Amino acid sequence: MAQIAEEREAFLKMANYSLVKHTDMMAEVRDEAVDICMNAVEKFPHDLGKCTHFIKDSMDKKFGSPWHCVAGKGFSFEVSHETKNTLYVFVAGETGVLIWKC
Question: Which family does it belong to (predicted)?
């Protein structure tokens, strides 16, 4: 059991890139949004409330209101959103971030 925990920890340290699971954003917007999500998760790794607040505020300032954000380690979703304004990305291995505009 300890070996599995060690291997998992090693994987999470290696997984310092983002994995875009779903998006319909334009490439420029997607790249900016992924950077914002990565910065937020790195800045607040143990406080998802601050993380989502940071992401929402950054997206609102950069791309106009109203953006919504959910972050966590195990969730599913079904949301109504504007076309070309949704992103579902995994950051730091297992933290999922969903942002959308509606």
Answer: Belongs to the dynein light chain family.
